[in-house]
Amino acid sequence: MKNIIEVKKLTKMYKNLKAVDNLSFEVKEGEILGLLGPNGSGKSTTMNCMLSLLEFKEGTITIFGKEMKPNAYDIKKEIGVVFQDVALFEELTVYDNMDYFCGLYIKDKRTRKQYIEDAIKLVGLEDFKKFYPKQLSGGLLRRLNIACGIAHKPKIVFLDEPTVAVDPQSRNNILDGIEKLRENGATIIYTTHYMEEVEILCDRVIILDKGIIIAEGTPDELKELANMEEKVSVYIEKLEEKHIEEIKKLKNVSEVTYHNSNLIVIYNKGKNNLISLTKYLEKERISYDKIYSERPTLNDVFLELTGKELRD
Amino acid sequence: MTVFKAYLKVLNKNKWMVILYTVILIFFAGFNMKTSDTRGFVTEKPDILIVNEDENIGITKHFINYIKENSNIKEIKEDENARNDALFYRDVNYIIYIPKNFRIDFLEGKNPEIKVKSTGDYMAFLSEMLVERYFKIANIYKSIETNEEKLEMLIENTLQKETEVEMTSKLDTDTLTKAAYFYNFANYSILAGSVFVICFIISSFKEEKVRKRTIVSSHNYRKYNRELLLSNSLFAFTLWLFYVLLSFILVGKAMLTSHGIVMILNSFVFSFTSLTLAFFIGNLISNKEAISGIVNVIALGSSFLCGAFVPMEFLPDFVITISHILPSYYYISNNEMVKTLEIISLESLQPFFINIGMMLLFSLLFIVLTNIVTKRKSS
Fold first, then answer.
1. What is the ipTM metric for this complex?
2. Pick among B216, B220, B227, B287 to test the A interface (most A CBs inside 10 A)
3. What domain range includes position B86?
4. A91 in reach of chain B (CB within 8 A)
5. B229 and B323 share a domain?
6. pLDDT for A48-79, tens place per residue?
7. How is residue A11 annotated by DSSP?
8. How far apart are CA A229 and CA A274, in angstroms?
9. List of domains in chain A
10. Which chain A residues are closer than 8 Å to B10 by Cβ?
């Protein structure tokens, strides 16, 4: 797959604050790239620089092999953007809103009409064409916001936290829509701080913190950075200190914490870790409840790399 | 056309406000035009009570007859309290007390005093003028004529004399006053209509999130701004044209005279100034909820301060001084001036063009301010 976007040594300053620091990465054709990071990590700034909405101090951004500039209308024609905030005309109906935003790209009336119908179908707004935005729920508004951004069938789609403050049903609908966009061949740049969405959707992930890339790779590659294989959580009403010390000595255990009746045991490798732990608890006649095992998440990766959680 | 099409749809959402401002214009301007008929005069007669203690003969009788001809004589019972009550309740405006032996004393040159009581209003003033006029003439002829009958004849002849006045002006002041009323009121409708609609539309199209979405699109942003500017200009022009047509309906053919055309030109320049003002405010504010309040302050405020609703001659001097800082003042001043111009020529229109220049200077100021605001916002 060829590179469709190339960002080289991008630096963006807000007065004395470096929002993005010497950032370099590329996006391959047809992939979904996740830009993951906590609030203020530089995700939106990076995206706005790529869209020429912000001027930047240093670096170059090329899209389709051409330099991205504010007047690069031939490049912009192939780009669709869905901003975090809903950007619509309150005075226009669902259809008219889409007609306007799609009309900024597609001048042919018949083609536009077809594209709008396709987008409406994609986000499931068939029954709301004549509704005004104020008549729609938050989730439906988000769907309309997405439809307005992708109705012109762009080759590259920028999605900036499209599922923030959305109900589960709309969220699933939006994620399904993104999958369909990928199936149709679109390249997607997806910024979010929801690691679950990144794990489900993204082929490749860039984790940002304080304007720099702290990790990059596929979700599985990144999880290997977490320096753990398995995490077991057990609810134990009361646990003595000597038992915690003994659990630490069990095979493959790298870390044990006990807080608010929650015992968390982290294993760096190995199989049957859960069985060995339950056997120990039964042998010591320690009663327990709600035991479960989980694989490392991207949050664990972030925690490992920065010492803080994604949602801090 | 994409921007223009969306513009029309958003405009359609605001059509009721434009209709409301137009109805207000038709109602108030129409009402004032109806009540401003200046053709012809109706002579008014004061209500006078004469208390005559002299004999009703000779010069006394002649004086009473003269008063009777020029006033409404009231009969009140012979009681001073009843007369005072009649004055208090404005049943009479003036009471003339003719003393005993008035006729003889007057003829003998003793200058007998005629006592009066009055309400002090303008009708009483009119009564006083009647009495003064009679005795001024009588005193002049009394020095040259001692015969009572001849004296009465001389007085009568003088009182009968009338001065013929011929109006040389061919100015249709009545129709031009109506036209001025209409265009003065149009100050409110043009300002309110333009500012409300254009502000509303600009705040929709330039709303930060929508603006961002437009900038990232493949539609040339300069072209987009140009389309928006043209759409707003077209709206302002249509609104002006509509009000001009309305003036033809309400005022009539007088709008085709040179006076009417000058008033139309004046309103065109004012519409342009309103458009630039609307652009400035539209770019300045970002809250749609605030638009109605701002429109009321600007349109109503300037209409009151500059004499659109209350004629300038009734406004206090300090209000007129303040109104100089508003473009409406120059627009309304022009309307008021044009209606009194005997001849329309480049020379007589010099003050008119100075006011037009002032309106254009305001437009320039608003354009510069709009540029400053938009540059600050975009940076």
1. 0.79
2. B216
3. 47-160
4. yes
5. yes
6. 999 998 888 889 999 999 999 888 899 999 99
7. E
8. 12
9. 3-224 (3.40.50.300), 229-295 (3.30.70.980)
10. 89, 91-92
